[in-house]
């Protein structure tokens, strides 16, 4: 077993070309805990990109930044912050959730997993902010796709296809992202004491206004009381959170307008800048979901207005000790189920949202569980076959993270 | 324009093929009469025309599926078509292929305000979606200038843009799901009313694929609450450099306007002559900066933009005081193309994107090229997102002027690539920019793009001759050049 730490795209190319010719499978990742997302990869060698780092280009007035894929997200965010800019997709730091230190995730990790935070409802996902990539395909060839400008329809949008592919199509070596101005002010309105259906109705109403809500979440009482924001923890009640960001006068006016609307749902308090930032970081990083280190954690995307209904159906089918909260206006369910839940709860969970559409991913579970359960949402036969054909066109020898998104043919069926 | 050589065998079997297609799509859904086929001979890029073998107008997904399956079986090429407004020849027919028109897919299937999305058939026009949700204060954000005619299916195929892309994105950022039929006839659903489709981002790959990967039969788009208010500032500068600096300074101040448009001297004068928008005629660059959003925000930012513009040397500045005045500001810009049409028998519209900061040098070089080619040019520019639309003025009746205009256009697009930009920002590659792709991409880049097509359409029957300058067989693309099995760079640190 060898661990390769390439420092240049050419070195990545050499390793992959060799692996493809041999062929020997490679476990490709950024060296952070996010390598535990997806199905376990069985590979002899590791290709770890954390040494492929550095900001390659940053032009604040052009709203563009390019970095080597192994650059840490926290370093990129710090660099952007010096120019009052940010990554609009608010990448979560799932290190602690996955039992590892915070601050380790690389830009490549986040793009591989298409992991977007609470601002997803307003600003879009990671994939919406990737302007261009340089990658090494499974054929051992360096290619570039996209560019450094926002408006670009030249050729297929391969940067999107690479985003969320978990390193199974190519190895990302350089990534060009859109930067956006950071909001000078942030304010969060909290409605206390709502049940999930009332909360989703309130969030839906808020998102239907032109007041430009930038995040909308619901924390049940048990989850809210773990917050480091005193007023939320002390209330002992559920918290329905609506965030507005922007310039001072705008934030003040919109908060006032939203408060008037939300007050018809329940009593409303406001969290000013610091508390607001703190609670959204907790939501973003899934820090409040559970204290059970062994609990299995699911991430479920559903039509936002169906969030509460899906949650109720899951609650009826699984043991009472399930914990959950909603982000994305109800459209993202984070769920923790006890480690001994049969089949990780996959069947009842997927049955619960089947009438509405969506997909569920088993984010945290031991390798042994992720090896046998469907970590990602099963698809129709036609889409599965198309997925396999795409994989083969990019990685014909199946050496890049084999089995990480779909079981390979050589694996014994569970 | 070089297109794939027609297959004589298929041309000779024309009537048999039409009969077989009628077996799948009955009655008037198949057009085989030559005089009726002429209506489909070109799209918005009218310089190129070709009458297709037949036109098929299915009205259900099952008919689309059966048609494609039959075409695959017969080895018959297929050119999908929405409203035919493409400016890059995306729907240019082939002599030995059918045009698959989606015009009968014209219904909005569902409006879902709670999930803030609309499910529509592909033949619904872009504007019809916004109109359908306006009563509840919503709209669909991407607004290509052809929005009254172009269809949402065509928008997905071309990844259409508009004037609000910096703030609201292109089509791809506003589509939640599609139903797409593959060349094999298989029907695949991608995404839905939830956020993020899951799995490989096939939705992202299909969007903007110019009809080469599949045929869209249903689209789910996200809709947004209409901004509470919108106001525009009209600013004149003595030079385009100052206007460009003003754009950079606005963005550096953390302001993302809903729209930010620039026109150069010739474009300003042509537009003012045509619609009398009240544009200043003594300036060489005009900016329209539109702020939209909550009233408090717009009022605040208008003031900021005003002071930035004055610092950058604005010589005229007007803030819209009413909705009517805002629309007047825009009237000149929106009429820029027909206005240029009034001062020249023909014009050729280019569509490169550049990093915003390179605008002055691109404009300088463009005016040098204008002298070299002896053709006038007027520039309109989506300044916010760097998308440049030089309009090259020519007269098709003068021998070789079209050819010179095309060469001039190609030089401008190469210039866009040279400064770090791209060949096309929103019109697509189609046939128009196909042969320039090798200027922007390396051979390996283009081969990998074509391998993606092989995963969808291994026989290369969907819209061939578009986007790629060279057609490769999938078997040829699939070959691996195997290198030796030695361990790579043994000196590299390993742990």
CATH structural fold name of the largest domain in chain A? Uridine Diphospho-n-acetylenolpyruvylglucosamine Reductase, domain 3
What's the total number of strands of chain B? 19
Which regions of chain A are unreliable across 5 or more consecutive residues at pLDDT < 50?
none
**So what's the oligomer here?**
heterodimer
What general form of chain A does the structure show? Answer: globular
- Low-confidence stretches of chain B are none
Which pair of chains forms the biggest interface, and how many residues does each contribute? A-B, 105 and 106 residues
For the record, give the distance between the C-alpha atoms at the N and C termini of chain B, rounded to a whole number.
56 Å
Number of helical segments with 4 or more residues of chain B = 18
Roughly what fraction of the amino acids of chain A lie in strands?
15-25%
Number of folding domains of chain B? 4
| Rg result of chain B | 24 Å
In helices, the fraction of residues of chain A equals: 25-40%
Any idea of the CATH topology of the largest domain in chain B?
Uridine Diphospho-n-acetylenolpyruvylglucosamine Reductase, domain 3
> How many domains in all of chain A?
3
* Helix proportion range of chain B: 25-40%
Mean pLDDT of chain A: 96
According to DSSP, the number of beta strands of chain A is: 18
Describe the structure.
The complex is a heterodimer of chains A (414) and B (495). Chain A contains 14 helices and 18 strands. By secondary structure, chain A is of the alpha+beta class. In chain A, the strands form 5 sheets. In chain A, strands 4-5-9-7-8 form a 5-stranded antiparallel β-sheet. Chain A has a 4-stranded antiparallel β-sheet with strand order 12-13-11-14. The longest helix of chain A has 15 residues, at 248-262. The mean pLDDT of chain A is 96. Chain A is globular. Chain A folds into 3 domains: 1-182 and 377-407, Uridine Diphospho-n-acetylenolpyruvylglucosamine Reductase, domain 3 (2-Layer Sandwich), CATH 3.30.465; 185-284, Alpha-Beta Plaits; 296-372, Alpha-Beta Plaits, CATH 3.30.70.2740. Chain B is of the alpha+beta class and 495 residues long. Chain B has 4 domains: 8-101, Uridine Diphospho-n-acetylenolpyruvylglucosamine Reductase, domain 2, CATH 3.30.43.10; 108-225, 2-Layer Sandwich (Uridine Diphospho-n-acetylenolpyruvylglucosamine Reductase, domain 3), CATH 3.30.465; 229-337, Alpha-Beta Plaits; 344-428, Alpha-Beta Plaits. Chain B contains 18 helices and 19 strands. Chain B has helices spanning 8-12, 14-24, 34-37, 61-74, 126-133, 152-158, 165-168, 202-206, 240-252, 265-275, 295-311, 323-334, 336-343, 359-373, 401-418, 437-440, 443-456, 474-478, and strands at 30-31, 54-56, 77-81, 97-101, 108-112, 117-120, 138-139, 175-181, 187-191, 215-222, 224-225, 229-237, 259-264, 285-293, 316-319, 346-349, 352-353, 377-382, 387-394. In chain B, the strands form 4 sheets. In chain B, strands 12, 13, 14, 15, 16, 17, 18 and 19 form an 8-stranded antiparallel β-sheet that branches. In chain B, a hairpin with a 4-residue loop joins β18 (377-382) and β19. In chain B, α10 (265-275) packs across α13. The longest helix of chain B is centred in the C-terminal third of the chain and has 18 residues, at 401-418. The radius of gyration of chain B is 24 Å and the shape is globular. In chain B, 56% of the residues are buried. The mean pLDDT of chain B is 94. At the A-B interface, β1, α1, β8, α5 and β10 of A face β9, α8, α9, α11 and α17 of B.
């Amino acid at each position: 077993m060898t661990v390769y730490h390439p420092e240049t795209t050419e070195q990545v190319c050499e390793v992959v070309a060799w692996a493809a010719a041999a062929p020997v499978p490679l476990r490709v990742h950024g060296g952070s805990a996010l390598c535990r997302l997806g199905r376990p990869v069985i590979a002899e060698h590791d290709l770890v990109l954390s040494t492929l780092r550095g900001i390659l280009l940053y032009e604040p007035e052009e709203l563009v930044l390019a970095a080597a894929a192994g650059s840490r997200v926290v370093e990129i965010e710090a660099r952007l912050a010096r120019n009052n800019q940010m990554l609009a997709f608010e990448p979560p730091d799932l290190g602690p959730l996955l039992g590892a230190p915070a601050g380790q995730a690389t830009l490549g990790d986040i793009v591989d997993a298409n992991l977007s935070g609470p601002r997803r409802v307003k600003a879009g996902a990671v994939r919406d902010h990737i302007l261009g990539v340089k990658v090494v395909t499974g054929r051992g060839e360096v290619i570039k796709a996209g560019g450094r400008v926002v408006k670009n329809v030249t050729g297929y949008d391969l940067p999107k296809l690479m985003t969320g592919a978990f390193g199974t199509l190519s190895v990302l070596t350089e990534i060009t992202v859109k930067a956006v101005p950071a909001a000078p002010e942030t304010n969060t309105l909290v409605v206390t004491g709502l049940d999930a259906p009332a909360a989703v109705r309130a969030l839906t109403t808020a998102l239907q206004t032109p007041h430009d809500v930038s995040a909308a979440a619901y924390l049940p009482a048990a989850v809210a009381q773990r917050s480091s924001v005193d007023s939320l923890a002390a209330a002992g009640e559920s918290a329905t959170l609506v965030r507005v960001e922007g310039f001072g006068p705008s934030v003040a006016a919109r908060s006032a307008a939203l408060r008037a609307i939300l007050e018809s749902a329940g009593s409303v308090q406001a969290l000013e800048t610091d508390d607001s930032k703190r609670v959204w970081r907790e939501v973003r990083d899934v820090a409040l979901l559970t204290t059970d280190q062994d609990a299995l954690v699911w991430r479920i995307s559903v039509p936002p207005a169906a969030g509460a209904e899906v949650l109720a159906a899951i609650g009826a089918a699984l043991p009472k000790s399930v914990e959950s909260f909603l982000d994305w206006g109800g459209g993202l369910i984070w769920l923790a189920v006890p480690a001994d839940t049969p089949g990780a709860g996959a069947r009842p969970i997927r049955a619960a949202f089947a009438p509405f559409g969506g997909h569920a991913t088993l984010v945290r579970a031991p390798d042994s569980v992720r090896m046998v359960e469907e970590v990602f949402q099963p698809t129709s036969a036609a889409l599965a076959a198309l997925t396999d054909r795409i994989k083969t066109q990019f990685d014909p020898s199946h050496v890049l993270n084999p089995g990480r998104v779909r079981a390979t043919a050589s694996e014994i069926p569970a | 324009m070089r297109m794939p050589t027609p297959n004589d065998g298929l041309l000779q079997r024309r009537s048999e093929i039409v009969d077989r297609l009628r077996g799948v799509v009955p009655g008037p859904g198949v057009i085989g009469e030559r005089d009726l086929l002429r209506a489909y001979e070109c799209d918005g890029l009218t310089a190129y025309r070709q009458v297709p073998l037949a036109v098929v107008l299915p009205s259900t997904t099952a008919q689309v599926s059966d048609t494609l399956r039959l075409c695959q079986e017969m080895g018959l090429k297929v050119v999908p078509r929405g409203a035919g407004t493409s400016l890059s020849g995306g729907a240019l027919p082939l002599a030995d292929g059918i045009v698959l028109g989606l015009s009968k897919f014209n219904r909005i299937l569902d409006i879902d305000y709670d999930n803030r999305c609309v499910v529509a058939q592909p033949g619904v026009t872009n504007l019809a979606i916004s109109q359908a949700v306006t009563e509840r204060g919503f709209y669909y954000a991407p607004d290509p200038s052809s929005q009254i005619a172009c269809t949402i299916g065509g928008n997905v195929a071309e990844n259409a843009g508009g004037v609000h892309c910096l703030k609201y994105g292109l089509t791809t950022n506003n589509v939640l799901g599609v139903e797409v039929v593959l060349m094999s006839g298989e029907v695949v659903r991608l995404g839905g009313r939830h956020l993020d489709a899951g799995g490989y981002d096939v939705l992202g790959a299909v969007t903007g694929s110019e009809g080469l990967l599949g045929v869209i039969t249903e689209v789910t788009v996200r809709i947004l609450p209409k901004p509470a208010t919108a106001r525009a500032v009209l600013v004149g500068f003595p030079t385009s450099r100052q206007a460009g600096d003003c754009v950079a300074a606005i963005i550096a101040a953390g302001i993302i306007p809903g729209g930010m448009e620039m026109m150069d001297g010739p474009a300003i004068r042509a537009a003012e002559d045509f619609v009398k928008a009240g544009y200043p005629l003594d300036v060489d660059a005009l900016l329209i900066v539109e702020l939209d959003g909550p009233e408090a925000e717009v009022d605040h930012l208008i003031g900021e933009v005003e002071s930035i513009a004055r610092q950058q040397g604005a010589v005229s500045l007007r803030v819209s005081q009413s909705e009517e005045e805002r629309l007047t500001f825009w009237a000149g810009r929106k009429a820029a193309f027909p206005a240029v049409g009034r001062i020249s028998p023909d014009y050729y519209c280019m569509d490169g994107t550049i990093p915003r900061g390179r605008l002055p040098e691109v404009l300088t070089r463009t005016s040098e090229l204008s002298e070299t080619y002896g053709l006038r040019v007027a520039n309109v520019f989506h300044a916010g997102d760097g998308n440049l639309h030089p309009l090259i003025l020519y007269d098709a009746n003068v021998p070789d002027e079209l050819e010179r205009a095309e060469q001039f256009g190609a030089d401008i697009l190469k210039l866009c690539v040279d400064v770090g930009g791209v060949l096309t920002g929103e019109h697509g590659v189609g046939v128009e920019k196909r042969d320039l792709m090798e200027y922007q991409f390396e051979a390996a880049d283009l081969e990998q793009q074509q391998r993606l097509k092989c995963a969808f359409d291994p026989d290369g029957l969907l819209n061939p001759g578009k986007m790629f300058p060279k057609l490769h067989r999938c078997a040829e693309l699939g070959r691996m050049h195997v290198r030796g099995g030695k361990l790579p760079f043994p000196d590299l640190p390993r742990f």
